[in-house]
Amino acid sequence: MCTSRYINPFTDFGFKKIFGEEANKDILIDFLNSVLPAEDQIYDLTYKSTEHLPKNDTDRKAIYDLYCENDQGEKFIVELQRAEQTHFKDRTIYYSSFPIQEQAKRGKGWDYELKAVYVISIMDFIFDETDEDFHHIVQLKNQKNKVFYDKLKFVYLELPKFRKLEKDLKTNFDKWLYLLNNITTFEQMPSVLKEHIFRKVLKLAEYTALPKADQELYDEDLKRFRDYVNTLDTREEKGRRKGREEGIEIGEKKNAIENAKNFLQMGLSIEQVAKGTGLTIAEVEELVKK
């Protein structure tokens, strides 16, 4: 059962409810225009199938969260990534290959001209601890750091790095990231989000305003989301515990070796040293050799 006034945008249901409805595509357009460079602004979008099948049966298919095309025929993949993935960057590159390949035209008359492809990744995790920036726009560049190809762009948003408070919000971009990070904590509409588009988002995302069937779908999705988060937390805690245990073991081993060296200098036998330190006879013999 939902316990917050607004639905969680990091659930599948919440993300698609806010950004994936044709009737409310102005919300997605406004969001994309806030994260894309000024020269890549969007005026209209059409939603397309999110499932892309490979050319060969043996190849892996791709299923996007959202896939759109603007009035110029340019393609936009929008992905929500809830947790760190080992080869996440590789996946975004792989996804970009499908809207490129689908532009191929049969026959000899095609001159290989392509429409631009954009991959926008909204991440609820940090993938680069060494970089303070949370808004990354990536293009193909040459050895002189000049753009080699301007029709393929990747946008990565590391939301946990965005820590501005309500009083610090200045731009539309700031407000979007603040909303995504904090919407489930809102008890009422924040006064700073006074623009029409944010009021529309909050009205759309209000749990009690959803039809009963949608509330049930969201509740099921929210439970899966919480179970997923709990699984990740448990895995991380096990990792931390294992690291602490390994650290203790290493420390105890070092102490045993130092004690063994002292016992050997005192003239104790190998067997006595092994018994007194917990080291094996072979380990003590190795210390004697050294």
UniProtKB/TrEMBL annotation:
<dbReference type="Pfam" id="PF12784">
    <property type="entry name" value="PDDEXK_2"/>
</dbReference>
<protein>
    <submittedName>
        <fullName>Rpn family recombination-promoting nuclease/putative transposase</fullName>
    </submittedName>
</protein>
<dbReference type="InterPro" id="IPR010106">
    <property type="entry name" value="RpnA"/>
</dbReference>
